[in-house]
Structures are given as structure tokens and as C-alpha cells.
């Protein structure tokens, strides 16, 4: 009987390897922050030419934290809609594979 795929990590601990992800599986829904970041990323780069990738993320995080609930609402709505899309696609995918 074949053994499970394992490898030795640091300190001799056994780690299980992840299985391959199905490329046809539905993509997970984006969070409200990700919708915000995708929308604002170019603005941050235009305002700060030559800025590093990490600094862009830091500025986006600061801007997100500065938003009030009313300003976050459109992004939360997009995230909720995308979550529903993912759940619907996931159900269809699982029904198809069964």
C-alpha cells in the first residue's frame, strides 16, 4: 500500500504536501478591501511615481482604514455579490463533479 506524499521539514517534522488544485474550480470571491485596492492602485502609483510594491500596499491599507462605513458600503456590496457568485459557481461545480 503506497504511503501518503510527505516531506521532511525543519527539525525533522513531517509535512503533508498539498494536492493539485483543479484549474476548472471557481475562483474565490474578492473581499471589500480587494475591490477598493484594485480600484485605487493606479491612483496611488500616479500620485507617487517610482514607489515600491510594498509602499503601494501600505498606502492602500492606510486609505482603507481611513474610510468610514458609508464610504466602504459600495465595496462591501461588491464583495457580497462576488461571494454569492462564488457560492453559486461552487455549488454548480460540486454538482458537476459528483
UniProtKB/TrEMBL annotation:
Organism the protein comes from: Xylaria flabelliformis
Domain spans labelled HMG box: 26-94
Basic residues biased stretches: 8-20
UniProt xrefs under InterPro entries: HMG_box_dom, HMG_box_dom_sf, HMGB
Keyword Repeat: no
Basic and acidic residues bias spans: 72-91
Protein name, entry field: Non-histone chromosomal protein 6
DNA-binding region as annotated in the record: 26-94
Amino acid at each position: 500500500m503506497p504511503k501518503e506524499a510527505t516531506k521532511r521539514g525543519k527539525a525533522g517534522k513531517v509535512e503533508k504536501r498539498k494536492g493539485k488544485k483543479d484549474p476548472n474550480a471557481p475562483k474565490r470571491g474578492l473581499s471589500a478591501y480587494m475591490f477598493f485596492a484594485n480600484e485605487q492602485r493606479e491612483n496611488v502609483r500616479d500620485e507617487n511615481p517610482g514607489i515600491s510594491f510594498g509602499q503601494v500596499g501600505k498606502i492602500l491599507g492606510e486609505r482603507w482604514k481611513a474610510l468610514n462605513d458609508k464610504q466602504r458600503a459600495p465595496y462591501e456590496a461588491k464583495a457580497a455579490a462576488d461571494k454569492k457568485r462564488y457560492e453559486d459557481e461552487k455549488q454548480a461545480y460540486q454538482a458537476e463533479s459528483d
